Amino acid sequence: MLRRIVFLLAGLGFAAASLAQQAPYQEGRHYFRIPVAQPTSAPGKVEVIEVMSYGCPACGRFQPHIDAWKSQLPANVQFGYLPAEFNAGWPLLARAFYVAEVLGLGDRSHQLIFDSNFVHNKPLRNEDEVVALLATLGPSADDVRKTMKSFAVETRLTQARKRVIAYQIDSTPTLVVNGKWRVSSDGMSSHEEMIAVLKYLVQKESAP
After folding, report:
1. Predicted confidence (pLDDT) per residue in 88-106, tens digit
2. How many CB atoms lie within 10 A of CB 198?
3. Is the dihedral of CA 179, 181, 184, 189 positive or negative?
4. Res. 22 pLDDT band, cuts 50 70 90
5. Left if phi > 0, otherwise alpha if psi is -120 to 50, otherwise beta: which for 87?
6. Coil, strand or helix: which one is 120?
7. Buried b (16+ CB within 10 A) or exposed e, 90-102
8. pTM confidence score
9. Neighbouring C-alpha atoms within 13 Å toward the C-beta of 56
């Protein structure tokens, strides 16, 4: 009986090792654990956050890929953006992101700002240019300007800076899955691979 138990345990260990070897993506290579898991804003769902900037060319190139994934978003997944402020000009763009959010402009403003920067070669360099662009979506220029200096926007910016630090983000675009895992474009062979790793982690976090 003892020998049978030993053989059984050895078999289970071999099976576990085989499954680990068969995993298509590995922690520490394709994705990284956030040392202190962060709370999410979507209880009962898998939260996916893209840390990005409208001033980041790589984020602009990644946008069609994340859009395609979002178009088939699983019912148990909640997605959102988190603007980073790493480079000169990015704080203004992060502010523009939250102005649009507070004004309820949603995805319309998101693509509009990317296109202004990288399609039309009209990067937003000052407050007046942000006001003029967002006002094309409906709100008055005065409302946009007031919102840029609002408490709601300042609060969101402060929270975003803390979250970027807590997630240990050092490049964009980076995906954060359920406050636990970080997927960076660094070291990825393609945007498609980055999305594939994202899908893998979403499935991993969705497992009972």
Report:
1. 999 999 999 999 999 999 8
2. 22
3. negative
4. low
5. beta
6. coil
7. bbbbbbbbbbbbb
8. 0.88
9. 24
Task: List pLDDT tens digits, range 173-199.
Answer: 999 999 999 999 887 999 999 999 999
**What's the half-sphere exposure (Cβ side, CA atoms, 13 Å) at 136?**
10
Question: 3-state SS of 43-98?
Answer: CCCEEEEEEECCCCHHHHHHHHHHHHHHCCCCCCEEEEEEECCCCCCHHHHHHHHH
Closest CA to 27 of 207, 154, 181: 181
Q: Residue written as tokens 């700002």?
A: 113
Residue 163 gets the label, from left (phi > 0), alpha (psi -120 to 50) or beta, of alpha
Which pair of structure tokens corresponds to residue 193? 């691979």
Element (H, E) at 16: helix 2-22
